[in-house]
Amino acid sequence: TSLGNGCLIGRRIVCCGETGSTNTDAFLLAEQGAEEGTVLLAERQLAGKGRLGRRWESPTGVNLYCSVILRPELPPYEAPQLTFLSAVAVARAIQITTGLQPAIKWPNDLLMNGRKVAGLLNEMNAETDRVGFVILGIGVNLNMRADQFPADLRTPATSLLLESGAPVSRQLFAVHLLRELDREYLRFQQEGFGPVREEWARYCNAFGREVQVDVGPNSLQGPFMGVDHDGALLMKLSDGRVERILSGDVTVI
Ligand code: BT5
Predict the structure, then answer these.
(1) 107 CB less than 6 Å from ligand 1?
(2) 46: closest CA among 27, 28, 21?
(3) What CATH code is carried by the domain that includes residue 233?
(4) CA of 22 to the centre of ligand 1 (A)
(5) How much is the pLDDT for 128?
(6) Are 193 and 227 within one domain?
């Protein structure tokens, strides 16, 4: 299938019933030369991946598991900009399909009422000075019921069904998501990171607010100032210095 309408993203869509991880499949396809804009969708993932070796719960038929192959002309350190781009596209697709506004939690979570409804996992293949390809991995809990979450995720996680009370069509959600991704990617190529960063800030749950960031055993507090060109979180410390944080856990206080 293909999304048509001259879109780059979704000009080829590969759907499968069951797979290990759509990101792993997309990575292999990209290595074999699959064109930019190729999208993989699965009904179910047996080994859905989160970051840092974590697991992404991927039950059959109820959610969206999607990976998109991009070949941007970017230096590798700027590739994280695409995570912000996909976060904005997912936020918009959620807003269009449910009428509810999600919040983006740096760096890669989408929340509704403080609970995680979607996660992003971007993987890249890069040489030293340029990106070969990036896989945008997107998991959105659409129609997952409370009893389909493992017990430890029932409080921290949610789905669009649980938040809005109405089921969301997977096809419709996918169409909106791919359209928004396409639009944002085109604008990103023409205008750079600026507009994505601005849009991201509108959805961010912490922008300008006092946050605590836990980095390993250390914890820092201060106002969340924004994100840098490489995706680093910028926060102002009490001595006025601006600290760049590349990975950590953010809590709004
Ligand atoms: C993520 O990792 O949030 C990235 C998730 C990316 C999933 C997509 S699905 C399509 C593509 N193919 C893949 O194999 N992956 C991508 P992270 O920030 O590390 O969050 C993982 C943590 O979120 C887990 O340790 C759980 O605590 C929680 N979690 C797991 N499954 C969840 C779910 N379905 N909904 C909400 N939270 C979940």
Answers:
(1) no
(2) 21
(3) 2.30.30.100
(4) 13
(5) 77
(6) no
CA distances (Å), origin 160, targets 24, 83, 93, 143, 204: 26, 21, 11, 6, 18
> For atom 20 of ligand 1, which residue has the closest CA?
50
240 C-alpha to center of ligand 1: Å?
A: 35
| Domain housing 72 | 12-203
Residues 104-156 have pLDDT tens digits of: 999 999 999 999 999 999 999 987 789 999 999 999 999 999 999 999 999 99
Q: Do 80 and 187 sit in the same domain of this protein? A: yes
Task: Indicate which residue's Cα is closest to atom 10 of ligand 1.
Answer: 65
Return d(Cα 100, Cα 224) in angstroms, integer.
24
Q: Is 86 in the pocket of ligand 1 (CB under 6 A)?
A: no
Counting from 1 in the atom list of ligand 1, the atom nearest the Cα of 109 is 3
3-class DSSP state of 188? helix
Phi-psi region of 61 (alpha: psi -120 to 50; beta: other; left: phi over 0): left
Please report, for the domain that includes residue 75, its CATH number: 3.30.930.10
Instruction: Give 172-183 pLDDT, tens digit per residue.
Output: 999 999 999 999
Q: Is residue 59 part of a domain?
A: yes
Number of domain units in the chain:
2
Sign, CA torsion 70/73/76/77: negative
Is residue 23 lining ligand 1, measured as CB closer than 6 Å?
yes
In a domain, 7, yes or no: no
Q: Does residue 119's CB lie within 6 angstroms of at least one atom of ligand 1?
A: yes
Are residue 229 and residue 120 in the same domain, yes or no?
Answer: no
Give me ligand 1 centre to Cα 191, in Å. Answer: 30
Q: Is the confidence metric ipTM above 0.90 for this complex?
A: yes
The order of strands in the sheet holding 218-227 is: 242-245, 233-236, 218-227, 210-215, 249-252
